[in-house]
Amino acid sequence: MGYGYGYGPHWGMMGGGGYGWGYGLLHTAITVAVVVVVVFAVIWLVRWVTGVGPHQGPHHGPRRSAGLDVLEERYARGEIKRDEYLQKKKDLGG
Questions:
Q1: With a threshold of 0.85, does the pTM exceed it?
Q2: Alpha-carbon distance 52 to 8, whole Å?
Q3: Tens of pLDDT along 51-92?
């Protein structure tokens, strides 16, 4: 009895077709990799758009200016007095 148009009893997705289990595992691994890449891309995009990075976020607050760091170092070394420190800090917006 013929099957018509060259299709045999094992034709189709589960019929073997010469690929076997190796192709199924490879297909699954590629699918998982694509899903992981898409998830990480979405997370990166959301962080980039919202401005939340590894050093910023809801618990860390905005980054300080380098000027405030220098001002604090100068005050700690005794190069400027308290009144000058407070005025410059206010001027820098800190």
A1: no
A2: 58
A3: 776 555 454 555 667 888 899 999 999 999 999 999 998 888
Dist. CA 52–CA 62, nearest whole Å: 9
Q: Count structural domains, the chain.
A: 2
Under 8 Å between Cβ of 89 and 71: yes
Range of the structural domain that residue 88 is part of: 64-94
Residues 55 and 21 in one domain: yes
User: Do 94 and 65 touch, CB atoms closer than 8 A?
Assistant: yes
Classified as helix, coil or strand, 64 is: coil
Residue 1 tokens read as 């009895």
Q: Which two tokens stand for residue 91?
A: 């001027």
